[in-house]
Each structure stands twice: as C-alpha cells, then as structure tokens.
User: What shape does this take?
Amino acid sequence: MILTEESVKAIKEKVKLYPQRKSAILPALTIAYRQVGHLSDEIYQEISRATRIPYVEIAEAATFYTMFPKAPRGKYLIQVCHNISCALLGADSLIGYLEEKLGIKKGETTPDNLFTLISVECLGSCATAPMMQINNDFYENLTRAKVDEILEELKAKA
Amino acid sequence: MATETKKDTRTAQQAPTVTLTIDGQEVTVPKGTTVLEAALGMGIHVPTFCWHPKLKSVGACRMCYVEIEKMPKLAVSCATEAMDGMVVHTDSDLVKRGRKAVIEFILANHPLDCPTCDKGGECDLQDLTFKHGFDDSRYDFLKMRFTEGAVHTTFDDVRIGPEIILNRNRCILCYKCVRANKEAFGEYDLGAFERGNITEINAAPGREVSNPFSGNLVEICPVGALTNTDWRYKIRVWLTKQARSICPFTSSGTNTLLWKEDHQQKIFRCTSRRNDDIDDGWIADVTRYGWSYVMAEDRLQTPLVKKEGKQVPVSWEEAIDLVARRLTEIDDTKGNVCIGGLINPQLDNESLHAFNKFMRVTIGANNVDHRLDYPMLPAQGDTAYSILSSQPFSIADIDTSDVIVSFGSDMLKEHPNEYLRMRKAYMFRQAKVFTINPYAVKNADIASVDVVYAPGTDEIVVNAICLAAIEEKLVDAGRAAGLKDKIVPNSAAEAAETAGVELDDIKIIARSLADGKQVTFLVGELVARCAEREPIAAAIANLNRLFGLTDKGQVARLARYANSKGAEKLGLTPFPAPEVKAKLERIFGGWPENEALTTDKMLVQMNKEAINAGLVVGANPLLLYPDREFARECLERLDFLVVCDSFETETTAIADVVLPLASWAEYAGDYVNLEGRTQHAEAAIKPRFHSRPALEIIEQLARAMDKPLFESADERRREVAEVLAAQAVLPWPNDYFEVSFDNAAADSEYTIPVFVGDDPHHAGHLTEKSPSLSNFVSEAYVEMSIELAAKLDVKAGDSVRVESEAGKVIVPVKVSDYLDTDAVFLPRNFSSAQVNSLLMRKKRVNRVKITRVAD
Assistant: This one.
C-alpha cells in the first residue's frame, strides 16, 4: 500500500458526499497527490479498491488533468511562465539559465531530488514578468542574480 | 441503421409524439427521438462517426450536422431532440460546408495511410471523406504522431489485447469503443487518456483488452484504429463474399456473417449481422473468433477404422460398410436395445431429426439423448424440471422487464447475449436486477441485491423467498394457501440461515417479485447441471405459482447450446413432450418398446454390457460428461463405438470407427435458438478434407443398412417442420410441489466447493481448436477469490493440485476480485486438463482440496 490508512479513510468519506460515485474521483486523486506528491498506476488501483470506481476511469481522469504529476518530483517544483509577457522579458533565457544552473533539462529533476523544472502557461502575473512559481509561492521580476539568490536560499532551507 | 426508428404505429398511439419536417417531408416520431434517428428512419442519409444505435449519444464527432430553421448555428442532430414544428434541412449548402469543415478537422492529424491500412474499403472515414470532404488539404505542417509504446514500424501499431491492434494515429476519437465497452458490456479495460492533441484511446495502464466482448470494439471502429489479428492483412475486404450464418456456440443464435473467399475456399472472419430481436448487433468473442477451428489444419481428414489396435485411414465406403455391418450384427445377435446414441445439440435440425429416426426406426431403440454433459437426468418426462425447461422465453422481453432475476446462472459464461440484455435493461431502463448463485458471478455489479448462497442449498433459497412473501403478506393469502405445508423449513429466517444468506436481501427480492410489473426469472446451468435438479425446479415452480410470474413475465431455464431447444422440440430426448411424441410416432410408424434411456442410464447399461454399441455424433462425452472416470469406463466396455467429430479427441481415441464431421460453416442448416426461433445458416465453404455433414453420414448409414430414412429431401424437411410445429411447452401443474431437503454434510478432507463450466472465451470442446480464442485463454485454471488465495497462500499463476475424491488435476491459479466465497471455478474446455475428472455424477456439490505444487 502506498496510501496511508488516513488517506484511504478520507477518500472513502469523499465517496459518501456525492450522489454518483464517480464524482469522488478528483477529490480522491487530490488526497492521494497531497500525501504522495505524485500519482501512479498503483495509486489508481488503490483508489479504485477504496472507492469501487473502475480503475480505468480513475486513470482517465488523472491523465486528463495535467496538474497531477505522474512521476516523483523534487522537493521544489519550479514552474516558469513561458507565455507572452514573460517571454518578451526573457523567460526563455531564464529557463536556459535555470537548466544550466541546476544541470538538468526542462521537465527533469535534480539527482538530489531537490528541484524539478518545468515551464507553464500564464500564471496571471504579467505585470511582474518574468516570473516563476516555486511550490505555492510566486517569485517575480526575475533576473539571473535574483534566481541565484532564491536557489541558494531554498538549498539552505532544505 | 435505417430500420432503427421505423415508426411503430402501436407505440405511437400510446406514447406522446412530435411532428417535424425533414427535407420537406413531414414525419411524426415518438417524443424523445433525436433528429438524427428521425431522419434515418425516413431513409435520409446523415453521415455519422460517433453515433451508434445502441449507445447513448455524445456528439463527439460533429459529422451529423443539420440545419434547423430558427437555430442560429448548425445543430448536431444525434444530440438534438426532435421537437414539434421543427424544420430540418440535411442537405443545404450550409450543412455541406459544415460537413466539409468537420472532415478537414478530423483529417488534421490523420495519417491518410489508406493504401497500407487494413480498414481500406470498409472505412467510414474513407467513404465519408470521398462523399463530403475536400480533395485537397490546407495543412502543410507536421502531423501529431504517436510512437510511444508502438512497435516501430511504419504503422506505429500497438497490441492492446490478445486479438486487438491499436493504431492511435488513425483514431478520430469518436469514443465509440470506450462507450460500448462501458455502457453495453460493463467492462473497464479500455479508456481515453490525456487530453487535447495527445488524447489517446488505450488499454487501462498495465492491462490488456481481453474482455469476452472485445471483438465488437473492432467492429464498431469507424476507422482503422482498431483492427483484429485474425483478419488484418490476410485479404482485402472487396475480395470477399459473405455467408449469412448463425452462432454455433451459444444458444441465442446470434446472427453473423462469415467473410469468405470462394476460390481459396477459406473463411476469413466473422462479424455481427444485427438482429434487434436477438442480439442488438453485439456478438461475444466466442462467436466472433470461434470459426477459426473450421480452418484448423489438424482436423480429421478421412474416416479412421481400428485395425489391430490402431486407427488407420480408410475410404468412406469401407467405413460406412463396416459400421452398417457391425451395427446390424449387434442388432441381430443382441437385440436392438443394445445400441445407444448420443448427439451434440449444436448440430442442425435435419441432422438431429435424421439421427432420431435412425435410432428409433432403423435401429429401433429408445436410446437417444442430446444432453451429454448433464448428470443424473430424470428418468421420466413429466418432472418439474422438464416443465421448467420447456417454458417459452423471449430475449427481447428482457429489455422491457422491470425486475430481472438470474438464478443459478453464470450468465457471462453461459449466456453472453442475455447477459448483455440484462445490462441493457439496467443501463437504459433502470430495471432491478437480482443475481442468486452459489458463487459470486461477474454481473453482480449491476445487481440491486447479489445473493450468494451456500452450495447445495438452492431450493432453500427459493423457499426462503416464498416464505418471506407469505410472512410479509406480499401475496394474496388465497394464492399462498397450502404452500407452507409442502416446503421446508418453517420460516424465511430459518431458510435464510440454512442457505447462509441475509434475510433482508431475501425480503427485498420477494417484494420486487411481488411488485414487479414485468418479471423475467432466468434459470441457468448451475441448476440444470446439478445432480439433484428436481427439488430446485419444483421450488421454482412453486415460486412461479405463488407470485404468478408467468402471468406477468417469463420464467425459463435457458437452453445452453446452439440447437438444444431444437433437439428438445424435435424429440431427441428419451421422453419427448406428449404432442411431439405423438407426431413422431405417426411419422415413424410406431415407437420403440424398450425403456427409454437418458445419457446416464445409457452409460450405466454400457457398463453392465447391456448396451454393446454406441453412436456418438459431434460430441466429446469424455471431456464434457461430469464424471470422466465413469464415462471412460462405460464407453470402453462397448464392443463397437462409432464417433463422428471434426477433430481427434479423447472420445475418438477409444472409438472403433471415427468419421470426420463437417462443421456448421460447411453446410446449410436450420437451428432453433433458446426462444424456439428457427433460423437458417448458409454454408460458407465446402466441407474441408473428406469431412461430411452429420445428415449425410446418418443417411448413408441407413441406406447401407437397407433402411433409407427419407424418400426425398422434401419429405425430410416436411417431417422436421411438422415435428417443430408440435406444442412442446408443458403446462405448469395446478398445485404446489412438495420440496423436502436433506442437508448433506461436507466431506471432512475436501472442503472447497468446485464448479465446472465454460470459460467466457470458450464453449464446448471445439473452441480450443480455434487459434484466436486460444490467444485469450489456452489452458485450464482454477479461479478463486482473493481471500481464498490468501488462505491457501498461493498467488495468480502458481501451479496448484486440485484434488477431489474422484481425481486430481494440476492447473495454474487465477485470482478474480468478483468472487467472494470459497467456491472455485474451473473451465472444462481444455483437453489437456481433464477437469471433469474431478467430478462425480451423483454428487450434488463436488468438493476439492487445493495444495500448492512445489516448484
């Protein structure tokens, strides 16, 4: 079992909230994601067993939603905006700099499992472009120096 | 397609209707009909990809655009309900432009690899593009292409199941396969994953698409995304012809087409031929892939005769002469009762009738039976079981029933077509479904209540329902009068306890049976094959009488094989129904005097050497009779055994003469399905090698004995028609049956109840010769619950020894999550396993012990 007893219990509670079992798929996936940090086929199976929703329907929903990671991620998820405002202000070179600095490619995780780097669509902070989101926090008006500082700070914290 | 919503005047009068105008013609349709269905019903062509007459509409493909006046945009006709006063145009310029745009959109990422695609020639996308699309493309950038997980060929194919190849690049995402799988079949091994450009249909992660209806997914695919391995790249579709055939493996007689090529005399595939009264256009995989045994190279090629202990090939003349001479000899020296005849109820009407006439006139013995795999058959004709078995049944009536009970029936394995009907009634009409079985079965997921009772307490469960109804006053007291004294135990609570079921569940079923407006009560093989079937049938007869079920629906034991009902109606049993017997007596000019013998009795007589010769046509009793050791002993004692079959089997191995039998696809014949409906199957090819149809063999044999059976083919057909016209339904009695019960204790050492039946992908003894079906399942297994596997400390794939008092087999474990008691299931279809050696014919519940085989 990957899911803890606590998670399974919480998932089972969610099933009771809806007239249709299937409605509990997203809340269940969210609970699993919060516990594990990512989703996987085994997790879908465990959710299926707990909710009696067919396995394939859980897998379908999970793959539809791109914000559920399907593989383990680093402790810090760096999401760099690559849409128009950020792009005009150098998001591309910023991503290149991060790749160089972390020694990984976009979409990869550092060997110490600390950082995962991805680029994302607009995060709604065009006024402070270029920007990125690390876990739940925004980092705005980025420069290379600022990125160095942020990474050092996170490394120190970890 | 067009027949789907043909206006039914009967329902039109009752149900509210709407009137609309389509392409200038006014039409009235029942309220709730979609614009698309209304148009198709008028014979107007509206192109579609994602719409299927038996599935809910989703409007995924947008191909069915029509223009409806006063609507601002084109409307998707499959998802637009017809309304009063609508004015619809299906062929205006706007509609044509809309269709062109849809085709262009669908083709955006389609590889256009028609020359190498196996669907070419029967592809909806190809046809509709020619008809409605552009002849040029505006797209000049690279197309999205799936390669992940694909075999890296030009075709980017992925195998997603034993018989299914997926090509995601050709897929147009109509979702028909995923919807059919979930809505119609209740299977969850196929899904649609990811989103947008990279949405893909695929097997559930880590699984394969191997459900017993998976072949239908290929058939309904409108493009070349799903193709099946038995057909692809063997021949182009336009080079084939089709023979209209009938499924020889299930009793529904689902309609099929056999795709063949005359010059090579080859069959290439089998597809459905939709008949809404029977099959809704869905056919089980056993039907779809089973045909390939016909083309197997190891079929019996010539007659074999045992000479000096070895079977050697001989000519037909020699074989027929020998059989005729030996049968005459035995008949003359030992009397006519000395010959017994068993025939497979998968053969056509005329073969069955000829066999009956041969046994009862030419030989003059009453020893005829078609029920080869049923132990301890009743030794008289007027039993509760005979009455139950003779009851009429209609497949289409399942659709309209509001309460459906399946009792003692593993529907998926025995009656796949009726299983789908039951699912349909549940999915589309919210029918209440109840399953009552000695082990948990697959359709339990749609059951309001799924009762799993202790094996061997079948009649007690039925009695419990009756008692609950009386106690709760759900039925008229006058009707119930007298029942309580005739059955055991005294109260529903006691009965429920004996059977190991919840009293509340029993009460719910009793209430539904009492309240149901139209009830379908189906009885299956777990009752029919039970050594003590009589008390169960009597209890069901009581239940029927108590609730008046026949008056508001149907109660029937479902016939099991393609022509079981035909064999019954043609009198191929020791005790035909009275009217059938009267007809036969007249045709035969008399009736044999000896005591009529069932399969069991014949075997017993063989054992006593009171029957010295045996004639087995198209059957393999050694594999299927539920007591292998007994059957072997009896058949080996015969002086002379003739077996007709298409393959060498364990039964042909002990025969003195083996005659190669043509398969159903090699001659035309009529078959009676479980409803009593006679259907014709055309011949697809000529008999292969030197095989001959059963009818021909029997007629030749009779001629060689100087007693020809029929003067002409016309006479033969007339006789068959006459017997089939006789009333074979036996009336229910006017009183309750007594039902007593003797609770036999389980053996100490053998504790696990064992059930033997057909694998969902197999039926009888021929399907293991089909390479396609063997791709699904090719060996026997022992299917058990997760809990039992844990208790025995075994896991899926482990070899175990399954041992009963009678014998033992070594098979791998299969763990199934829907099983929830200790009962285990073994498929009987595989010669290599000899599963029937575990069974003893007199035992009501066979029990086994299971131990792991050391590695």
Summary: Chain A touches chain B at residues 41, 44, 54-57, 59-60, 63-64, 66 (CB under 8 Å). Chain A has seven helices and four strands. The longest helix of chain A spans residues 144-157.
